Amino acid sequence: MTESPPPVVEMRGISLAFPGVKALQDVDFQLFPGEVHALMGENGAGKSTLIKTLTGVHTPDSGTVLLAGETVAFTSPGDAQQAGISTVYQEVNLCANLTVAENILLGREPRKLGGIDFKAMRTQAAAVLARIGVHIDPASVLESHPIAVQQLVAIARAIAVDCRVLVLDEPTSSLDAGEVAELFRIMRVLRDEGVAILFVSHFLDQVYEIADRMTVLRNGTLVGEHLTKDLDRRALIAAMIGRELGALEAIEDASERRTASGPVLVRAEGLGRKGAIAPFDLDIRAGEVVGLAGLLGSGRTELARLLFGADKATEGKLLVDGAHLHLRGPRSAIAAGIAFCSEDRKGEGLVADLSIRDNLVLAMQAARGWSRPVSRRVKDQLVEKYLAALDIRPANPDALVRTLSGGNQQKVLLARWLVTEPRLLILDEPTRGIDIGAKAQIQQLVTSLAAEGTAVLFISAELEEVVRIADRIVVLRDRHKIAELDGGSSIDEVVGLIAGEHLSEEVAS
Amino acid sequence: MTALTTKLPSRFLPVLATVVLFALTFGVGSGLYDGFASGQVIANLFIDNAFLIVLAAGMTFVILSGGIDLSVGSVVALSTMVTAAGLKAGWPLPLVIIAVLVIGSTLGLLMGLVIHKFDIQPFIVTLAGMFLARGLCFLISVESVSIKDSTFRDVATAVIELPGGVTITYNVIIALVVVAAALFVLHRTRFGRTVYAVGGNEQSALLMGLKTARTKVGVYVISGFCSALAGLLFSLYMLSGYGLHAVGMELDAIAAVVIGGTLLAGGVGYVLGSLAGVLVLGTIQTLISFQGTLSSWWTKIVIGALLLVFIAVQRGLIRERR
Question: Which residues fall in a coiled-coil region (chain A) (predicted)?
Answer without folding.
Answer: none
